[in-house]
Write a structure and sequence with these properties.
CATH class of the largest domain: Mainly Alpha
Distance between the termini: 29 Å
Strand order of the largest sheet: 2-1-3-4
Organism: Pandoraea cepalis
Order of helices and strands: EHEHEEHHHHHH
Helix content: 55-70%
Largest sheet: 4 strands, mixed
Oligomer: single chain
Protein name: Glutathione S-transferase
Shape: globular
CATH architecture of the largest domain: Up-down Bundle
Keywords: Transferase
CATH topology of the largest domain: Glutathione S-transferase Yfyf (Class Pi), Chain A, domain 2
InterPro entries: Glutathione-S-Trfase_C-like, Glutathione-S-Trfase_C_sf, Glutathione_S-Trfase, Glutathione_S-Trfase_N, Thioredoxin-like_sf
Pfam family, one: GST_N
Structural class: alpha+beta
Number of strands: 4
Number of domains: 2
Radius of gyration: 17 Å
Length: about 200
């Protein structure tokens, strides 16, 4: 059985848990991080020297970094589904994983932090506009879909999902992003999205 260390309320852990659930791979979640602690223990650091979550162990293989874990799970257990057979479709899925980490996450994090700190409204408006401008790249790229690489759910959708959900919590931002709104509706059709993402990510 696969072991995963983390907490359901972490977006990085949630996408790993959804990938495992989507692939129907048995796993055990060991609660770690935030109020659950244990990240600085000698035992945990021997698995993940960064002292962060998630960490996955599959037999003798130990992995950290959530996108690497999702890619591994897709390749190992989801060949032809989460891991597209066609190299072009696989690359299309893969690129959005990196795009989210390098572009969407920093913009969205800055806005969420400003909202938490009740930053001046003009500053929050600038950050909100930055998020919208960033996500318009995705909005313009979504085709008939319904998913980012076409008709089937792939690893890229799993990685994007927590951030798409968080976008839906920001001041009607999806009203300006009709293709992303349709994309979110398609994600919501998946029980894993509802149980692993919507139920835990705020």
């Amino acid at each position: 059985m696969i072991d995963v260390w983390g907490r359901n309320t972490s977006s990085n852990v949630a996408k790993v848990v959804w990938a495992l659930s989507e692939l129907d791979v048995p796993f055990k979640l060991h609660l770690a991080g935030a109020n659950f602690g244990s990240l600085r223990s000698e035992e945990y650091l021997s698995l993940n020297p960064n002292g962060r979550i998630p960490t996955l162990r599959d037999g003798s293989l130990v992995l950290w970094e959530s996108n690497a874990i999702v890619r591994y799970l897709a390749a190992r257990y989801g060949d032809g589904t989460l891991w597209p057979v066609d190299p072009g479709a696989r690359a299309a899925s893969d690129k959005w994983m990196d795009w989210a980490s390098l572009n969407l996450v920093p913009a969205l994090r800055a806005l969420r932090e400003a909202q938490k700190q009740s930053a001046p409204i003009d500053h929050r408006r600038v950050l909100r506009n930055s998020v919208v401008a960033t996500v318009k790249i995705l909005d313009a790229s979504l085709g008939e879909g319904p998913f980012i690489a076409g008709a089937g759910l792939t690893m890229g959708d799993i990685a994007l999902a927590p951030h798409i959900h968080r976008l839906s919590l920001v001041d009607d931002v999806l009203a300006e992003l009709p293709a992303v709104e349709r994309y979110r509706a398609a994600l919501k059709e998946r029980i894993g999205y509802r149980e692993c993402i919507e139920a835990h990510i705020t």
